[in-house]
Amino acid sequence: MKDTFCVITFHSTHLALEFERVVKKEEIKAKSIPVPRQISSSCGIAGRFEEEKLEEIKDICRKYDIDFEQIYRVYQDKTKEPEELA
Hints:
InterPro entries: Se/S_carrier-like
Domain Putative Se/S carrier protein-like: 6-73
Organism: Acetohalobium arabaticum (strain ATCC 49924 / DSM 5501 / Z-7288)
CATH architecture: 2-Layer Sandwich
Number of helices: 2
Pfam family, one: Se_S_carrier
Protein name: Putative Se/S carrier protein-like domain-containing protein
C-alpha cells in the first residue's frame, strides 16, 4: 500500500462529474471520493488518483477545459497534513 495519493478538488459538482467521465473515457485510473476532511472545498466530491498520474491529469483537465480548484498530496498517515501540488 502506498503512503500517499493525490486528490483533485473542484468548484462544483458538475465539474467533478465531468472529470470522472473524462478520466474514464481516457482510461486513466481515478475515482470520485468524498473530499477528505483535512481538505476544504466548495464541492463535496473530489477525484483520487496516484501521484505518478499528476501531469497526465493536469493535461486532461486543460484538454477538456475542466477547471479544478486544487490538487493535493494526501498521506495515508492522517497525522500529516495534505500538501498542495497545483
